Amino acid sequence: MLASLVAAPADRRSDPPGPAAPSSPGAPASGGRRALPAVNRWLDMPRFELGDRFTAEQREFLETFGFIRFRRFADPALTRSLAEEVEAIDRQLVAEGRTIVRGVPLILGRHPDGVRFVQRIAFASTFGPRLHRFLQDPRFRAILDVAGPDYRIGELERDGLVVNHFRNEPASTYNRLGWHTDSLRDLFYLERPRRYLNVGFYLDDSPIVKGGVRLLPCSHEQGLWPMLTRKAHFVDHQPDPGEYALEAEAGDLTIHDGRLWHRVARATAEGEASQRRVMYLPLMNGPEKPKHEGSPTPLYFRFRKLAGY
Ligand SMILES: [Fe+2]
């Protein structure tokens, strides 16, 4: 079955191979599709769209490779309105001098002109009605059903809805992320690694020149030991010969299995042209553990600070 996904029949509705990504200031001449890892040439992702439930093919793709991308989950108008609200929340948090939300530290950066901005907003949907409404979209039910029988969107749990804002700028502290598995977090919470689905919604286009998610297809099928030791968590940034570059457009939704090894590569574009904002949904199961302003900072964040961001 895997072979049928890897081979690319002529009639498959996969994404077209071109055109080259638009060149941006600071992008090397070799940018664009030619810079894609070798794995992107043989792993052909169909142009999936998400309906009320996963199709058998979508489910099989996710289960086989450990990730999937749905095109145009939101139309451009909705995507823009969500991005506007995120910008307003960002300005509000900076104006209020917030450094922590419900026990989770914000990651703050600075534009070249000195203006501060938030590079990682936690619990974002508690600050904006549009984001909160977006999370009520019935199609998320389809994802929760695939995650497991008792999953929910935990707006007040863990880090809530997270908005990551990556930029390649001199004063940006958050422009890449080393190899890791999301499941490591479960161990920090003293829980057994669960089948966690990491769901990202793209507010900006994310072509190869913006860096972005690199993942090792099928690495979610490993045991606990390789999950912990295959690479040095967060400190290893080396490209892997077996990595796949997950490109996306604004409005797309991606899912990857939390046990999958992945990293976020630094953009080759710079400044505004490198802006890449992705929202991550908090899928939770088990007993509800909502956080409040007095919640302690998890050990996990102290560990990440050691890794340099
Ligand atoms: Fe991750």
Describe this entry's structure for a reader.
- The protein has 309 residues and is of the alpha+beta class.
- The protein has helices spanning 2-6, 39-42, 56-65, 76-95, 129-134, 139-147, 184-188, 224-229, 299-306, and strands at 67-70, 100-101, 104-105, 107-110, 116-121, 152-153, 162-166, 177-180, 197-202, 212-215, 244-246, 253-257, 262-265, 276-281, 283-284.
- The chain has a single domain, classed as Jelly Rolls, CATH 2.60.120.620.
- The strands form 4 sheets. The chain has a 7-stranded antiparallel beta sheet. It has a 4-stranded antiparallel beta sheet with strand order 8-13-10-11, with no helix packed on it.
- Strand 2 and strand 3 form a beta hairpin.
- It is globular and about 45 Å long.
- The model is unreliable at 1-5, 7-12 and 17-32 (pLDDT under 50).
- Residues 180, 182, 198, 262 line the site of fe (ii) ion.
- Fe (ii) ion is lined by residues 180, 182, 198, 262.
List keywords for this structure.
15 strands; disordered N terminus; Jelly Rolls; 309 residues; binds fe (ii) ion; globular; alpha+beta
State the domain count: 1
Main beta-sheet annotation = 7 strands, antiparallel
Tell me the overall shape: globular
- Calculate Rg over CA atoms: 19 Å
Strand elements, count = 15
Helix-strand makeup class:
alpha+beta
CATH topology, anyone? Answer: Jelly Rolls
CATH class: Mainly Beta
Number of helices: 9
What is the CATH homologous superfamily assignment? q2cbj1_9rhob like domain
Helix content: 10-25%
Mean pLDDT: 86
Low-confidence stretches: 1-5, 7-12, 17-32
CATH architecture, please?
A: Sandwich
C-alpha end-to-end distance: 41 Å
